[in-house]
């Protein structure tokens, strides 16, 4: 168990899902893989299929149409899978909390492991969040 | 003869108001019964390109704006229609003229409740499948 | 007993897996450096495989036994190829007549396993990936075999790996002749398509097809496919060295030649965009086959 989780923290394959975001947070996530903040040195890779995913990066406020689809995507990812909410819209719906189409925040639908605040969060903030998540998993054993 | 003069020449008495917001941004109003003939003339005879359509709920009634672009000179013409009857708003659909108007009219219908007569496929576009009928979110309460 | 040791440990499965994973790491590190990044640590690929072994194994509802069996198919055959190639380098006199043909047949199986696995997962995106892989196999097999026929002609008609090596040790490497050089270039292009890297990875396209052929695989089965690709990355340049550069195969020069070919493959991968599948077919059936036929012709004349 210890070795399995330790290997998971050293090689995280992320799958990026946008639940109706404005795409700013998506651009910041893409920035993580550019030469300035290269996260591939931590073993993090962006992969194409949700069945290869270790972490789901979810951006955007969840509207009514994307709730059943998001649940389906979460079920398709093989466990153990981490869920990371990136950006203020994914955390608490931000300015859309009184909207007609957005009624529940993300963590009432999926179990979220890491919250990265910001609109959009700086890449340094996302990296710092990943480091804290990795430490939390290693201490939990 | 530039496009403004050609427009006024072709539409003559149908134009009820004319406002030049700036050198390239022109708003003019027509009555709702002339809408099909007007847009047919704009698109087929004068060669303007349909850009999009917008709708808003004002105290005077539902105001629909159809935006057209004249690419050669970089000018933008907006056609304003006012629907005074707020209980049963309806207007002719321009989807038979060109298929690009189909989806935007569906969206205006589902958000504001304006019925487009002769529309081939008037059903929900953006709202969730279980959204209650008759609940038009963008109307003023 | 010795055969089992050869197959499982050295130079078979374990050794080739470790060498292949290190070659994959070198690929990622050099690509990162070319893009002014830092790149992963040396143990990254091993950690990836270890992590995949610990994940949940999801099987599609309608997938049959082919879904679970095809990764093993590819892995076992490519480990056998590594064994045969390793043994023929260590002791060239113990190879058997016809082992070149055996290696050629075995090298076809990983692509077939990929197509079988993708088709049995009953996913339309995987079906598109499988059809692309099939078209690619049909394109690159002919020039590859023509290049090997060049080597057979130059080595005097023998189809034994050990004798090809011996001839090169006595008479000089095959690459230092006109037909050998052209055949080497053709074979270099063909192994890029065989491994599935460089501009020829249309079947496993990440962005377009959501990982194409491997879309439904997860956990252990995915780890086996990744291992197959890693061992192929180790075996195929080794195969080329035996056929074309076999004059001096002491461990030092062998490693240097292998690294040279690997660096060429990495550079080509980083400087070229992915080709569409119809471009791949036109490329292999056009210029590459033509070059291979020229090489065979030159070899028959004696150059």
Summarize the structure.
Chain B is built from three helices and seven strands. Chain B has 141 residues and is an alpha/beta fold. Chain B has a domain of 82 residues: NADH:ubiquinone oxidoreductase Nqo5 subunit (Beta Polymerase, domain 2).
Strand content of chain C: under 5%
* Strand element count of chain A: 5
Helix proportion of chain A: 25-40%
CATH class group of chain A: Alpha Beta
For this structure, the quaternary state is heterotrimer
Flag low-confidence runs of chain C.
none
Helical/strand content category of chain C: mainly alpha
Pair with the biggest interface: A-C, 24 and 33 residues
H-E string of chain C: HHHHHHHHHHHH
Task: Give the total of domains of chain C.
Answer: 1
The biggest beta sheet of chain C is recorded as:
none
Number of helices of chain A: 5
Shape of chain C: globular
CATH A-level architecture of chain A: 3-Layer(aba) Sandwich
Average of per-residue pLDDT values of chain C: 90
Strand order of the largest sheet of chain A: 2-1-3-4-5
Tell me the series of helices and strands of chain A, N- to C-terminal. Answer: HEHEEHEHEH
> What's the helix count of chain C?
12
Please describe the biggest sheet of chain A, giving its number of strands, its sense, and whether it closes into a barrel. Answer: 5 strands, parallel
Tell me what the structure shows.
- The complex is a heterotrimer of chains A (141), B (141) and C (303).
- Chain A is an alpha/beta fold.
- Chain A has five helices and five strands, in the order H-E-H-E-E-H-E-H-E-H.
- A five-stranded parallel sheet of chain A has the order 2-1-3-4-5.
- The radius of gyration of chain A is 15 Å and the shape is globular.
- Chain B has a domain at 3-84: Beta Polymerase, domain 2 (2-Layer Sandwich), CATH 3.30.460.80.
- Chain B has helices spanning 3-11, 35-45, 102-112; strands at residues 17-22, 25-29, 49-58, 61-70, 75-83, 90-92, 115-117.
- Chain B is globular and about 55 Å long.
- The relative contact order of chain B is 0.15.
- The model of chain B has no long low-confidence stretch (mean pLDDT 88).
- In chain C, helix 2 (13-34) crosses helix 11 (251-271) and helix 4 packs parallel to helix 10.
- In chain C, 49% of the residues are buried.
- Chain C is built from twelve helices and no strands.
- Chain C is 73% helix and 0% strand.
- The interface between A and B is small, with 5 and 7 residues.
